[in-house]
Inverse folding.
């Protein structure tokens, strides 16, 4: 007769996926933190977006046990997560934990995700760690709800419940059930950057539940790429945005419109989303005309973003290296 008290439940098998580009120092911190988790991670997969800083050599030399996938070109975060999760889901794992190279999960972060016991419910599609600054304060854009048709975020950063259902989380410490990935598909590689996490969690939420586990924390070292990019005219008196990074505006607006196209449940809802996107376009265009240099280039970025979004064009369009360095 078997003693039930001695029967243990096997630990969930996890593969971690990290996407990196030219930040090997931060990547080292991330990999060390993953290897030091109190819950074991059988496989860590690094997707290198064709870095030019020696990232691949560093991983091969210092982390030989890590699975390294080097892409032939920079496919952005979206392309990197697409390839990494594609590889992870082919493994014998139940969960896939995804994060950027500037993430440093606290030692108990993965253990805390499973301590919530939400993973035992087969309708749970994902579990998200809380994203914090190096000083421990919670980052505003961490988790919450995203309304694709109003293009607004309702952040959940000050709640008291240890576990909260959410409809939005970034790819900084999001753990996804492998079976859900097999059924809803992979992140949209054609987004390049921005919005791939929004779109993917919307899909996951249609499959099952996604929860925030507050006791699971991941330090996010580079929070400069905020979800909220201010375009209000009064905010622009603080100074224009450097032209060298203005290519981001294309993906930010275009991908929000692509989400509208994909997730609208009616033509009325779709056109309502397009109208919201038009408002964002016009607000940004007026700010460019009033305050910015390189007006022609900036306006072309905005025009193409709106047109490509409503017509459904995805993929890498603007190469960051092609933009001028000066303001």
């Amino acid at each position: 007769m078997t003693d039930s008290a001695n029967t243990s439940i096997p630990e969930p098998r996890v593969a971690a996926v990290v996407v990196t580009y030219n930040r090997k120092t931060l990547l080292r911190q991330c990999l060390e933190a993953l290897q030091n988790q109190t819950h074991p991670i059988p496989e860590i997969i690094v997707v290198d977006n064709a870095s030019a800083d020696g990232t691949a050599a560093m991983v091969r030399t210092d982390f030989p046990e890590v699975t390294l996938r080097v892409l032939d070109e920079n496919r952005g975060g979206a392309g990197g997560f697409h390839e990494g999760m594609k590889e992870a889901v082919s493994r014998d794992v139940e969960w896939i934990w995804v994060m950027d190279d500037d993430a440093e999960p606290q030692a108990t972060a993965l253990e805390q995700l499973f301590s919530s016991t939400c993973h035992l419910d087969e309708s749970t599609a994902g579990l998200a760690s809380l994203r914090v600054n190096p000083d421990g304060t919670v980052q505003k854009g961490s988790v919450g709800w995203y309304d694709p048709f109003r293009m607004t975020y309702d952040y959940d950063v000050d709640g008291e419940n240890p576990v909260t259902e959410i409809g939005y989380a970034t790819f900084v410490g999001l753990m996804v059930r492998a079976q859900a990935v097999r059924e809803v598909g992979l992140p949209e590689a054609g987004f390049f950057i921005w919005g791939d996490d929004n779109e993917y969690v919307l899909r996951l939420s249609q499959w099952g539940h996604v929860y925030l586990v507050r006791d699971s924390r991941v330090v996010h070292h580079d929070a400069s790429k905020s979800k909220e990019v201010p375009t209000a005219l009064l905010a622009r008196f603080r100074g224009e945005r450097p032209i060298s990074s203005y290519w981001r505006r294309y993906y930010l607006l275009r991908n929000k419109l692509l989400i509208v196209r994909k997730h609208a449940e009616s033509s009325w809802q779709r056109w309502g989303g397009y109208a919201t996107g038009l408002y964002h376009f016009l607000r940004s265009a007026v700010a460019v005309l009033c305050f910015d240099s390189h007006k022609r280039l900036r306006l072309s970025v905005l025009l193409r973003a709106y047109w490509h979004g409503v017509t459904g064009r995805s993929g890498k369009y603007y190469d960051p290296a092609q933009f001028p360095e000066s303001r």
In short: The first helix runs from residue 24 to 35.
